[in-house]
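Chain A, query sequence.
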Amino acid sequence: MTDKRGMVYILGAGPGDMGLLTLKAADCIRKADVIVYDRLINTSILSLAKKDAEYINVGKMPDNHAVPQDMINQILLDKASEGKVVARVKGGDPFVFGRGGEEAEALYKNGIQFEIVPGITSAVAVAAYAGIPVTHRDYCSSLHIITGHEKPGRDESFLDYEVISRLEGTLVFLMGTKNIDEICTKLIKYGKKGTTPVAVIERGTTVDQRVIVGNLEDISKKVIDEGISSPAVTVIGSVVALREKINWFPKGRLKGKRIVVTRAREQAGSLVEEIRDLGGEAIEFPTIRIEEPLDYRHFDSALRDLKNYKWIVFTSVNGVKSFFRRMRTLKIDIRSLAGIRIAAIGEATATELFKMGLNVDYMPADYTSKELLNGLAGLIEKGEKVLLARADIASNELSDGLKRNGIDFEELTTYRTVMDESMKSIVKEYLKQNKVDFITFASSSTVKNFIEILGKENIELLSNTKIVCIGPVTAQTAKELGLFVSAVADKYTVNGLVDKIMELSGE
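Chain A, predicted structure.
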């Protein structure tokens, strides 16, 4: 252990919906060296972390503490004492029955810097997602948040049900599913009417949200009959009746669907956003990571001699970004491209070029290497040299075809694709629990890496999951590797993928 002290952010990640993560919490996760997280967080939040972050799962189940609290405290102390920035990511708010206070005390006693980042508490957010306002001036004027699970072994309860039962406001019990019969019985015993409305919301704000409504007399039986389990929030009071009017969640054409996105993080944004906008949950599982070339000598030489080329062919968005990023680094004026014709494999690549101020001279109607080659063969004149800008692991279909057609070309590696295993354990656990509806593949490399990361021995975990590919080449790769492909996008774009998922979802 060194004398250097790091920093710990004890932060709340909200109740489940990734959109409820605060901007400050997101910033803390992005700069953290170590992410120490609970089971109740939306694991997609981990995709915000930097690529070399260390992940430590200290998730706890009721009556089954995966990592005891004193050990969690020690992990925070040890990592911070190594001079690292630690994000302690907790569900909901860290100070609302989240034991964040205990962790802060331990850090204070050991001289470790820390900061508290409040989160949106499930006591309010989960009720809202169930269409229940916890206060309403026509129904109640107070809110009381109560634990349904006190510290084990305590001789005397902090909860006085004789007092609680006289409260006229909304009662919200957190972590009370296991004890709901006892809670309801005591409230009735000390004066609450048995007809008082009650709602129990399981996994609120997520695609798995379930809501059952009853009253103090019958809700515990309904919880058992419906198999409601933790995590769940119990709301008691007249405001529960408002659910009939303002119930709004879930919504969207992909509501209730959980979809794995295997694209690199640099490319996944548009697909992830589209899925979430349509009410689905996107699980980012970037099987590839985009890296810079190991050696820039060839890249730089090509850029300085652009006058030698009559065509530049781009086969991916990443290729465009890398190409122009290097031009900026070398301070090469974009006017150096004057007179050079530009080809793009598809719409997304063409759009990225347009952002750079360039219109493409050729883009095939079908976004495949085969169609790109067929078009170029009829456009490139004898003696014209082509610069083929793409990834290090791009297939040979295009380059072999150019050779067969006697076209003079030079291959340029603009970026490398590296396998990314950071989310392996999380996605594997989702698959084991049969909680993945769709897996999307947008390139052959994502398929290959997915299989290698997951392991061929685990392919059977995909038996209840639909696989959707962006195009026929990707689909063929998936089939060759033993996967059953449910569908291929009609249009080989992100929107095409989403359209196909909605079609398979019956929407």
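The first strand starts at residue 7 and ends at 12. The mean pLDDT is 91.
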